[in-house]
Queue: 2 jobs
Job 1
Amino acid sequence: MDTGRTSDVRVLVVEDEQLLADAVATGLRREAMAVDVVYDGAAALERIGVNDYDVVVLDRDLPLVHGDDVCRKIVELGMPTRVLMLTASGDVSDRVEGLEIGADDYLPKPFAFSELIARVRALGRRTSLPLPPVLERAGIKLDPNRREVFREGKEVQLAPKEFAVLEVLMRSEGAVVSAEQLLEKAWDENTDPFTNVVRVTVMTLRRKLGEPPVIVTVPGSGYRI
């Protein structure tokens, strides 16, 4: 597995080539990221105004609202969101211009997907405070870089969403995390907020972590470790 913090990174992919956009989103989701997708600049501005994203993968040449204007709006709003700008042009002057308007990184097309993943991970790390490389709590060790979990020295195999939920809970350092917060951090906006996916995921996560239970349900509030 590639290295890097991924499971609590929320990404907006903005790309008018729908096949490319959907392929990028699918690949990022396989890395346990929560990903939303839009195909034009106007829709991007709408989503940015509603949701908090760690990273926006932004095509520069967009319909309705140009990618440059989307980037400028993110900067104008003072958002902590990082922008990875994509372009079909490989000219240095084009890259420099994109960075000057506020993009945090630049990737010309065509690109290697492994490089896109690495750049999104790096930008995602820059949106939050530094955290220990290995999280430890209640006899559990979670390594976000290696995507490994151990309980009392025994490795626990988790599905991507189970890993994401466990990481969010462990990063909260004992604070209660609501189901809504887990949905926001570990899933994308297409998930029905009334679904029982959080409850089911927590149930399977508890089973895999074994006895005694370490995930506590706080009635009416959420979960904590």
Job 2
Amino acid sequence: MKRFLPLFLFLITASLWSQVVKMASIERGTFVPLYGATSKKPVQVDAFSMDIYPVTNAQFLEFLKKYPENSRSRMKGIFADKSYLSQWESDFNYGSANLSTAPVTNVSWFTAKKYCECQGKRLPTMDEWEYVAMADEKRIDARTKESFNNYILSWYEKPKTYANPVGQTFKNYWGVYDMHGLVWEWTADFNSVFLSGESRKDKDTDRNLFCGSGSVNATDLMNYAAFMRYAFRGSLKARFTTKNLGFRCAKDKK
């Protein structure tokens, strides 16, 4: 029995590791985003990989153990506000009130970016995130389905979904869970909705794009579910943390 123990432990470790790094393969495609261009031309999204689930408390704890400079007590104010991991009991203890399999929240853009980079990954771009998020169980683009948008809007009204475990929402066309119904998520270029002009490549910013005048560049003014996501992103700064904002990682395909 003893000689089989190392093999057994190895298999268990390998199984857990495979769950941690499991990603979905996203094929190359195009779509017209809610924001980004007054010409309403399709945006091309190159093939990439995306984490099937948002990063959990347990995964983030392992990251902090390896890189303790990102722990709550050592976090510098320029990289995260005072609410950073405020729901945790201490630097390296997310506490019994927080599920290990629940998404980590109250994490700033800086630390989300750092986490992904330490995994050999990156944060998804906003176009990548929206491209994956527009899929339901069977369709790549379900944005015109009333039931799909109603599902998203009904989630916005539900309290404390961030406390639920990952993987409890529907599995979409790409095999990705929790794009809707669990937490809001950081993207690499979350504040690009502020960019004005003919495309997001312009360098001039227009802070009035948030809220009311934010609908100026919308391709579908009736798409309130998506509008609320863009408005929320537009209100953020990289050091901000909130209890319903988490993240997941992405990776380029070679």
